[in-house]
Amino acid sequence: MTTPPTHPVPSDLPGNIDDGLHKQAEEGKARDVLVGGIKLTAVGVTDPGSIGCFLQDRKDPTAVYILTVMHLFGEGIQSTQVAVGAKVGHPDGRDGTCTNDVIGTFAAGDGAIPGIDEALIRLNPGVKWSPQIDGLGPITQPPADPNDPNPDHTNTAVVALDGTARVMKWGYRTGGTGGTVLADEAHNPDPKADHSFRGLFVVRPNDNGNEHHLAFAQKGDSGSVVVNAQRQVVGLVTGRNKFGNATALPIRLVLDRLNGPPNGKIRDLFVVTTDQDPAPTFTVRGAAMVPLPREIEARLAADPEMAATFRGEAGRAPVGRPWFTDVPPQAAAFGRLQEDLAGSAAGRILFALWERHRAELTGLLTSDRRLMLVWHRGGGAALVQLVLRMLTHPGQPLPETLHGEPLMSCLDRVYAELRRCASPALRADLAQARSVAPDLAGLDYQGILDALETAAAKEMTADA
């Protein structure tokens, strides 16, 4: 019999000691399976926040939401400034054809009313998630409250406001911290007071032996959820003050406001919980998938490490998302790619093509249906995914064929479709790039760089 995982209780978690250590450890770290407490970034906004927990809607079983905060979209933001559908990413909010980590879109929230800071992010189809909190474990179901007739509260917990309730949170910035709910600051009558909106409760951090760095939450932890010793969600972290205390909205208040009035509900949201430990993993339904080239299927079967990072399932790969958890690689790897390509004239031509025409290329690959079909089913997407993965696995060569066709035949088909719909400027640069592109079949990362240098030399000789 296996021993079930153990998880910390509030008394195990001191207040934060150094507000930089956890952030540094988490920087750039992507998760294949989303959990509470990890990094969440609005596309185009520099300051990240945290995933709180996951909600589902009884009115729409296909909908899965992240609960987080509105000010993830900018301090003092108002709902009229955030359009439904605004993109949200993990970890960094990149939104390009080759570097897309967008996981969902803004679905609901209202920053126009003081104190209403909760927000919903609807997860995209194909995204994997688990009802647990990073470092704390599965979110559990609280017992029914016989004194509360509201059916929305069937799986929400309350926190005692008598100064004795011990709670904890796990946020992107500071990781796990524990604290005590303060009764005397629980409800501030002034709705305009900074970080003291009506309905909030306050959490004082546990002693950590270093009072100068005592904090329950720091900037970047907003959006994480507060849980009790049984890992039942009791609140949503919205802010902090200079004393190290954090403010949080009770989860029942959050759900009541997001669901709308009882007699005219917009939604019927509930916190997703589990009685399994470890928590199960789910995939949001409705994702577009394409068949894998059999050459990549064979590699996955022969390489357990590669298979463990694959995001697809049953011989199919996701459309519009990286195929592997280590793609896209970290920014440093892209910097090295730019430096390596700069070592040859052909490499500089290829990099310049992407730099000059990134927006147009991205737009064409998401709007022109004929090009999209060739790109995804003809090997273009597979080739890009494999090349990007080379940045962290430089010894893995490209296959000789894709879907049984020579690799360069697949590339030429994509090239022809791009020329059909490209602007004159892009068409000219595509022709130049194709003229110096070597045969990539069977080459590893260094082999590609060497081939680019050789191809450029041949082109110069021919011109002479």
Report on this structure:
This protein is of the alpha+beta class and 464 residues long. Among the domains are: 19-137, Trypsin-like serine proteases (Thrombin, subunit H, Beta Barrel); 289-463, no CATH class. It is 28% helix and 22% strand. It has eleven helices and 22 strands. The strands form five sheets. Strands 3-2-6-7-8-5-4-17 form an eight-stranded antiparallel sheet, with helices on one face. A six-stranded antiparallel barrel has the order 11-12-13-16-15-14. Helix 6 (345-367) packs across helix 10, helix 7 (369-377) packs antiparallel against helix 9 (407-421) and helix 9 runs antiparallel to helix 10 (424-436). It is elongated.
| Overall 3D form | elongated
Question: Strand pairing plus helix content: what structural class?
Answer: alpha+beta
Rg computed from alpha carbons, rounded to a whole number of angstroms: 25 Å
Distance between the termini: 75 Å
If strands are numbered along the chain, what order do they take across the biggest sheet? 3-2-6-7-8-5-4-17
State the total count of DSSP E strands. Answer: 22
How many helices does DSSP assign? 11
Note the main sheet.
Answer: 8 strands, antiparallel
Helix fraction? 25-40%
Low-confidence stretches: 17-25, 184-196
Estimate the strand proportion.
Answer: 15-25%
Average pLDDT confidence is: 83
Short description:
Helices cover 28% and strands 22% of the residues. It contains 11 helices and 22 strands. It has helices at residues 21-26, 251-259, 294-302, 304-308, 331-341, 345-367, 369-377, 380-390, 407-421, 424-436, 445-463, and strands spanning 33-36, 39-42, 49-50, 53-57, 60-69, 87-89, 102-109, 118-123, 128-133, 137-138, 166-171, 175-182, 201-205, 225-227, 233-240, 246-250, 269-271, 282-283, 289-291, 316-318, 401-402, 405-406.
